[in-house]
């Protein structure tokens, strides 16, 4: 989203009668360690400064992955959050009252399927009969499905082991699983620790889109707040691209991950700009939904467009 569009959005908001008076509202933000832009805003207190004059209190809640963020959102305890491509599909299919409000540029190289350095698994087809760890309903889930399809394998050809990122890393390191499908910064952290080999990144397999989502009722009632959040994210992206080492150090101080891990993540994918969801991304997301439905992993077919918020 460009600054001019955001300025126009805010200007139209005032003309449309959005009040600039304080309104006593909680903005509960669900984030992951992978949410570079959000974590950076949290570290700087940017949203708190910008929204306090409007009576909006910002509260932050950290999650390991996208699915629990959307579960909390559907339950009413999270207002907005950021996830990968698959969690919204599973949530929509389950009837969650959430909407896509924005997107970041795709980042296919920011996720990967890892195997131990000495593994006999040399190509994707070698995953047949193997135990593969990933978080159910996450972007890593779709990456795994796409990788199997490319290799000419069926989902039933592997044994999926559904684990959180921290559980999966532990299982991977003790040899309980043969491969691990994961996203940054966990991917970067595992690579830095050593003893792993990248079987395949997401390039050519998945767009690995990142989405901002909101509870539908919250989005409909608070478009001004969302516009302010988007502007803060857009402005902050310029800062992120300007000083990688300092940004990595700041993020490390707020998440506990090493600064070098974030530096590797930023080098792999430097652009965290935000925009409203476009038609091309909706089409890519529909492919994700159709793939999971065809495999029987979601209970019904869905139309992604039905969950796209129009400001």
UniProtKB/TrEMBL annotation:
<comment type="similarity">
    <text>Belongs to the bacterial solute-binding protein SsuA/TauA family.</text>
</comment>
<dbReference type="Pfam" id="PF09084">
    <property type="entry name" value="NMT1"/>
</dbReference>
<feature type="signal peptide">
    <location>
        <begin position="1"/>
        <end position="24"/>
    </location>
</feature>
<keyword id="KW-0732">Signal</keyword>
<dbReference type="InterPro" id="IPR001638">
    <property type="entry name" value="Solute-binding_3/MltF_N"/>
</dbReference>
<keyword id="KW-0813">Transport</keyword>
<dbReference type="GO" id="GO:0042626">
    <property type="term" value="F:ATPase-coupled transmembrane transporter activity"/>
</dbReference>
<dbReference type="InterPro" id="IPR015168">
    <property type="entry name" value="SsuA/THI5"/>
</dbReference>
<comment type="function">
    <text>Part of a binding-protein-dependent transport system for aliphatic sulfonates. Putative binding protein.</text>
</comment>
<dbReference type="InterPro" id="IPR010067">
    <property type="entry name" value="ABC_SsuA_sub-bd"/>
</dbReference>
<feature type="domain" description="Solute-binding protein family 3/N-terminal">
    <location>
        <begin position="26"/>
        <end position="244"/>
    </location>
</feature>
<protein>
    <recommendedName>
        <fullName>Putative aliphatic sulfonates-binding protein</fullName>
    </recommendedName>
</protein>
<dbReference type="GO" id="GO:0016020">
    <property type="term" value="C:membrane"/>
</dbReference>
<dbReference type="GO" id="GO:0042597">
    <property type="term" value="C:periplasmic space"/>
</dbReference>
């Amino acid at each position: 989203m460009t600054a001019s569009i955001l300025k126009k959005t805010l200007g139209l908001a005032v003309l449309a009668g959005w009040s600039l008076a304080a309104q006593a509202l909680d903005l509960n933000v669900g984030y992951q360690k992978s949410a570079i832009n959000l974590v950076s805003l949290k570290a700087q207190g940017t949203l708190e400064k910008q929204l306090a004059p409007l009576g909006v209190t910002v509260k932050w809640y950290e999650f390991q992955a996208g699915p629990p963020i959307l579960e909390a959102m559907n339950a009413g305890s999270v207002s907005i959050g950021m996830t990968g491509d698959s969690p919204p599909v599973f949530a929509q299919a389950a009837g969650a009252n959430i909407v896509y409000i924005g997107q970041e540029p795709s980042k296919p190289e920011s996720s990967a399927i890892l195997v131990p350095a000495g593994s006999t698994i040399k190509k994707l087809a070698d995953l047949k009969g193997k135990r593969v760890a990933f978080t159910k309903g996450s972007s890593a889930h779709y990456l795994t499905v796409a990788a199997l399809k490319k290799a000419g394998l069926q989902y039933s050809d592997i044994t999926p082991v559904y684990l959180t990122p921290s559980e999966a890393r532990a299982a991977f390191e003790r040899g309980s699983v043969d491969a691990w499908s994961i996203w940054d910064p966990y991917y970067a952290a595992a690579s830095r620790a050593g003893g792993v080999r990248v079987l395949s990144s997401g390039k050519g397999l998945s767009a690995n889109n990142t989405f901002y989502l909101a509870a539908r009722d919250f989005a409909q009632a608070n478009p001004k707040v969302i516009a302010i959040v988007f502007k803060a994210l857009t402005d902050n992206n310029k800062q992120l691209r300007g000083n990688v080492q300092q940004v990595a150090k700041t993020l490390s101080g707020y998440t506990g991950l090493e600064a070098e891990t974030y530096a590797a993540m930023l080098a792999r994918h430097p652009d965290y700009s935000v925009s409203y969801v476009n038609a091309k991304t909706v089409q890519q997301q529909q492919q994700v939904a159709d793939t999971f439905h065809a495999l029987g992993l979601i209970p019904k077919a869905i139309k992604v467009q039905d969950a796209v918020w129009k400001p």
